[in-house]
Amino acid sequence: MAMTMKGEVALPADRETVWAKLNDAEVLKACIPGCQTLDKTSDTGFTAVVKLKVGPVGATFKGSVELTDLDPPNGYRISGQGEGGVAGFAKGGAQVSLSDLPDGAPGCLLSYSVEANVGGKIAQLGARLIDGVAKKTADQFFTNFAEAVKAG
Amino acid sequence: MSATGIGASVRRKEDFRFITGKGQYTDDVNRYGQAHAAFLRSPHAHADILRIDTAAALAMPGVVAIFTGDDLAADKIGGLICGWMIHSKDGEPMKAGSHPALAQGKVRYVGDHVAVVIADTLDQARDALEKINVEYAVLPANVATANATQPGAPVVHEVAPDNAVYRWAIGDEGATQAAFAKAAHVTKIDLVNNRLIPNPMEPRAAVGDYDSGNDAFTLYTTSQNPHVARLVLSAFIGIAPEHKLRVIAPDVGGGFGSKIFIYAEETVCVWAAKKVGRPVKWTSDRTEAFLSDAHGRDHVTHAEMALDAAGRILGLRVHTTANLGAYLSTFSSAVPTYLYAPLLSGQYAIPAIYCEVDGVYTNTAPVDAYRGAGRPEATFVIERLMEIAARETGQDPAAFRSKNFVTSFPHQTPVIMCYDAGDYPASLAKALDMADYANVPARKAESARKGLLRGVGISAYIEACGIAPSAAVGSLGAGVGLWESAEVRVNPVGTVEILTGSHSHGQGHETTFAQLVSERLGISIDNVSIIHGDTDKVQMGMGTYGSRSGAVGMSALSKALDKIETKAKKVAGFVLEASAEDIDFKDGKFSVRGTDKEIDFASVALQAYIAHKFNGQDLEPGLKESAFWDPTNFTFPAGVHICELEIDPATGVTRIDRWTAVDDFGVVINPMIVEGQVHGGIAQGVGQALHEGAVYDASGQLVTASYMDYSMPRASDLPAYQVGMTQTRCPSNPLGIKGCGEAGAIAAPPAVMNAITDAIGHEDIAMPATPLAVWRAIQKGAQRAAAE
């Protein structure tokens, strides 16, 4: 089953700084909720292990993360997919774009548009919880990311 | 009538066992040394399997073996079969895609079987499932019934490139066209018959056992027809020849059709028992049941009815797309064809009917018979049409039905069925009276004063059940005959054991079959036991579904009892020194006509076995007889249900206020049990109308796979029913029985929807009519009224 969500967050750093962090595996690993490992396999590819809990189903997803549509320092598309064994699968992506804040304020605006898809036991047992979990996971990622930017 | 004979509301003998927790269900079976099976199920609706890596799982603690489709293929284990051949209108046989018990190269629905882990404990088996690595190439899924055959839709089976299993038709197209050409009024309707998940209380389970000393298998399974399971597992799937395979279906906790079929899990358990040299047990969890039990209904229909100026029906034409899921389940092909369209005539004299049905594959669970099986879908079509046609032409719905009733019998419909007996006006009159139909307007006004919407809906259903004459179903494509068998074993002390091929999984056969014996032999039901569900005890049988156990199973028993009586009279004749022709048998006593010489049944039984009195005569010792009964027609129970309900327009919540059911089931063995069947059937029908609906999302994920998301009717959703009966004997069996098991589920959905549409004032609402759906329909009606 599929869901989509959108959001934006104002960051206290310029676009180049934010762009660098968006491409930093260590930063991404720290920000992705439940991320156990994130290993670079190429300039734009990673393998990842992420622990996720949807209602009664908890699972470890093993999969890949890929960065595409790179447009430094304006944005990219980050997408990933993982198999959670009997728990099912999850896949999804986010279009991330950076723009100036209005009125020339310092920092930049990060906008994101996420679509996610889950299947198997997660969809079967957690159907009515998935929207909430997906939104919370996305929110948490970008909150974490804002913290990382703030921390420099 | 004896105190425990035909017509007595005897309490169910089996209930003591059930309510004290002493039932023996398949999950209660534990064999020495048994291992446990857990199935890896596809998380994808449609995918190629590129690779299955079981190495890590095999190394897990307690794992005995892991099997995939390749292992079944290597052992030449055949796929699951569909036992009813349907031909398309162009003469082409239906396109049956292969259905391996474990997937071979491809998965076709979420829940499809990819691999099985067999381990010492269930937890170990489940843990090992986590370690199986499957690489899938995900394919687009074909999900929506109405779009399944659209050009470009993903192909589920290559044998059916347009996803059509068959394009079938019945009736006279030309005559129907002619009827419509001269119509004064045509009523049209588009309907969705919502997809349901059966949900018997006991989930499916299987224990496979292999005796290497005798090279023989035993399968304990939750089956409604263990003999057919043995036949299919032997002759088609190739587990073992029939004399080397015993199938036992012990206590079974409900089936509603879903346990008729032969499933992947039981096939794998019995096969694997030999492979691993240990008994193998599997019990479905509830989510597995949602995913992999055969679902029911799922039709998309356009229907039209032609009327003349006087309000008489001239013709009916129907086009239905029926979703059969990803594979053809055991009897699936027959359900939306021969179990559906021949009932479209309802209780009415309709001169011309033409119906086309496209059976389609989708990437969803297989769809097969579910309580009523085709007949609820047909009744929904005809009874929604009747109601709307009456409204459109300004006729009272009851009067409009009356005007069109079949009133003389036998009545040959244009679609196969020949109705043999019935009195439809009698049931309608009684139902209208019990429902206080005359005062509906006053009650509507009273509701309106409270700000509530009151509606009343009639459903005059008919079903063809007691299936069925073997020759008839054979000519329609069935791969089996649908007779039934019975054996009567009288013990030397006069107690009786009945062996029947019918299978009780909630119907109360241990009581009702004993009541027939009590009636006939004049003995207490406490002296009768009913044995069923074991292929080593009962030689052959066709099982229980289609409301057939009374009409067919008990008729076989009645025939066997005839033979017992004939032989017992001969024994009594020798004992009483009279000719058998001069022996009367009444109330359990044999007497010589015109004398006071008599002997009771138990004494005759003893004499039959000690055989002192007829040694050397033309009479064998013992008292045991068997019989097979093959009916000459379907049976045609019919009745009228009236639903009256109130809707709160602020919330869309529907409250059923009154329910009247008047049914003609022919002769009734146990009125209490029959009334219970009516209650349960209505509850299921109300469930379909107001609550239940299986939902797959566009990617083929089942999002109603637990009770959090699939709503079942609860006691508080249902009113106190008023149940009445009328009676015409069924002429095609010796007992006059018609059958009652499915009636409520057939009658109820259109009664509810006719009442809801009456209350909201328009027809634009689909099942399930949840509060949200009703509220939206009310808003839509208000918007339309404002726009006009």
Topology:
The complex is a heterodimer of chains A (152) and B (788).
Chain A: E1 2-11, H1 15-22, H2 25-31, E2 35-40, E3 45-54, E4 57-71, E5 75-83, E6 89-100, E7 108-119, H3 121-150
Antiparallel strand pairs in A: 1-7, 2-3, 3-4, 4-5, 5-6, 6-7
Chain B: H1 15-19, E1 35-41, E2 47-53, H2 55-58, E3 63-68, H3 69-74, E4 106-107, E5 113-119, H4 122-129, E6 133-138, E7 164-171, H5 173-181, E8 185-193, E9 205-211, E10 216-221, H6 226-236, E11 245-248, H7 264-276, E12 280-283, H8 286-292, E13 299-307, E14 313-325, E15 352-361, H9 375-392, H10 397-404, E16 411-412, E17 418-419, H11 424-434, H12 440-449, E18 453-462, H13 470-475, E19 484-490, E20 496-500, H14 509-521, E21 528-531, H15 549-576, E22 583-586, E23 589-592, E24 598-600, H16 601-610, E25 624-629, E26 638-648, E27 653-664, H17 671-691, E28 721-726, H18 743-760, H19 771-787
Parallel strand pairs in B: 1-12, 10-11, 14-15, 20-21, 27-28
Antiparallel strand pairs in B: 1-5, 2-4, 2-6, 3-5, 7-15, 8-13, 9-10, 9-12, 13-14, 16-17, 18-26, 19-20, 19-25, 22-23, 23-24, 26-27
